[in-house]
UniProtKB/TrEMBL annotation:
The keyword Nucleotide-binding does not apply. Signal peptide: none annotated. The keyword Cell membrane does not apply. One of its GO terms (molecular function) is kinase activity. Residues 330-441 form the Carbohydrate kinase FGGY C-terminal domain. This is Carbohydrate kinase. It comes from Amycolatopsis alkalitolerans. It holds the Pfam family FGGY_C.
Length: 490
């Protein structure tokens, strides 16, 4: 007898960098309850970005209690996903031994530059298919090993956001294979590559890396977790994949060659592949992520040029985010000749190239231009960055999209036209949580109809004449980027 899927009530929780969201879906994939609350991000001079584990765990409790109180009947399971990268150091009881260091952090910029010059990043990329950047675990751990060794001495595990929350809720020390992928995991074997760890000078800290959980692993709320969430002890909990692969699963990416564009804090461009091989001599950038299914991987290019750039532009020109669409409509494709490079992050860029010194620029400006031209040039440059990423990742099939940037119809159209690709956008915004729930249901042996869930979407078609117009614009972007890379300095 098939399981009664209508009785399966899984709370999906997406623990983002700045927002934690909980969603409950019905059997057809439509959200029936949701809640969200902000997380605190502490920005310290010197490009340091940190978060407090207790505060983040508190956001999970807030949203879970809210959605659990809004639904009828018992909860079947809790499915977690969230931000990846960074380093979340904990002791054996799951308590933080220092504030978590975010993936946005830039304190290891200089270290990364040394590794690039010495060939360390190239060696690790050859072994794992993943590039390194200032906010990844390898560079942060090496920095701490030199500057804060006592912190590492006190830690029992150096993990990530999702597994840090899981440890607090279940008492288990674990890590999802997707989180573990960057940068030490061999994607073919799903085991750590010891030589990659050694190349980073971290063999003596190897014990801090939790072994990746087995596929379809299920954990259970302990008494403390149950008390925190107001749910019964013993409730099944799944931990991952982290937000990039979870979004791909939730959006409907199923076939090799299909891709997903996430226009959020990160501009994440991912393409599904069933081949563990990668170009070991290519540019050492991006990620080669293992997914919940053996033999399936995501070639991910998570650029640093996401919606934070638009927030910056809005402050610069004195508008609210809701006014961006109107400004974009006031300037034609090509932004009246204004061009931009969008690298505004203090930690530079990580995909499809890595350069901690990468910085933004605008060109072609005159007194005749207005703020609409400036904002449109920035939005177009981010779309060009997405095209650059997808060319590196090998997009050949359908393209899906999600993230806050997709709420702007005008910007979504720019993406479609620059990419020359129709874009499928799920109707429900909780795509990461949706992916986590789909994985949880399969792990529990009560899988939902993934095709039915993916059908709740709309398609944005590209405009052929705009595609032609953007071809020289993309060539100009590439030429400007090539010239700028020779000039950037930390």
């Amino acid at each position: 007898m098939l399981p009664d899927r209508s009785a399966v009530v899984i709370i999906g929780v997406d623990i983002g960098t700045s927002l934690t969201k909980a969603v409950v879906f019905d059997a057809s994939g439509v959200s029936i309850a949701q809640a969200s609350t902000p997380s605190e991000i502490r920005q310290v001079p010197g490009g340091r970005v940190e978060q407090d584990l207790d505060q983040v765990v508190g956001t999970v409790a807030t949203v879970v209690r809210e959605v659990a109180g809004a639904i009828d009947g018992p909860v079947t399971a809790l499915a977690l996903t969230g931000q990846g990268d960074g380093v979340w150091l904990r002791d054996e009881d799951g308590n933080a031994v220092r504030p978590a260091i975010s993936w946005l952090d830039g304190r290891a910029n200089a270290l990364l530059e040394k590794w690039q010059a010495a060939g360390v990043t190239r060696e690790v990329f050859r072994r794992t298919g993943s590039g390194m950047f200032p906010g990844c675990a390898a560079t942060i751990l090496s920095y701490l090993d030199e500057c804060e060794p006592g912190v590492l001495d006190r830690a029992a595990v150096a993990g990530y956001c999702v597994d840090a929350v899981v440890q607090r809720l279940t008492g288990e020390i674990t890590v999802d294979v997707s989180d573990a992928s960057l940068p030490f995991l061999d994607p073919a074997t799903r085991r750590y590559d010891e030589q990659a760890i050694a190349a980073c000078g971290l063999s003596h800290r190897r014990g801090l890396l939790a072994e990746p959980a087995a596929p379809n692993a299920v954990f259970h709320l302990n008494a403390c977790g149950a008390d925190l969430l107001g749910l019964p002890a013993g409730l099944p909990v799944t931990a991952g994949p982290f937000d990039l692969p979870a979004s791909a699963i939730g959006a409907g990416v199923r076939d090799p060659g299909d891709g997903i564009l996430t226009a959020g804090t990160t501009l994440a461009c991912q393409v599904l592949t069933d081949n563990a091989a990668f170009d070991a001599e290519g540019e050492p950038a991006g990620m080669f992520l293992s997914t919940p299914r053996a033999g399936e991987f995501l070639r991910a290019m998570p650029a640093m040029v996401g919606t934070a750039s638009i927030d910056w532009a809005c402050k610069l020109v004195g508008i609210e985010v809701e006014q961006v669409g109107g400004l974009l409509a006031s300037s034609p494709p090509g932004a009246n000749g204004v061009r931009a490079l969008p690298f505004l992050s203090a930690s530079g860029e990580r995909a499809p190239f890595v350069d901690a010194a990468a910085r933004a620029q605008f060109s072609g400006l005159s007194l005749e231009h207005g703020r609409g031209d400036v904002v449109r040039a920035l939005c177009e440059s981010i779309a060009y960055a997405a095209r650059h990423c997808f060319e590196a990742a090998g997009l050949s099939g359908r393209l899906y999209a999600c993230g806050g940037g997709m709420r702007s119809a005008e910007w979504t159209q720019i993406f479609a036209d620059v990419l020359g690709h129709s874009i499928v956008i799920p109707s429900d915004p909780g795509v990461g949580a949706r992916g986590a729930v789909l994985v949880a249901a399969e792990s529990l042996g009560t899988p939902f109809d993934v095709e039915a869930w993916a059908s709740n979407s709309r398609t944005v078609e590209f405009v052929p004449e705009n595609v032609d117009l953007y071809q020289p614009g993309y060539a100009d972007y590439q030429a400007s980027l090539s010239a700028a890379r020779g000039l950037w300095r930390l």
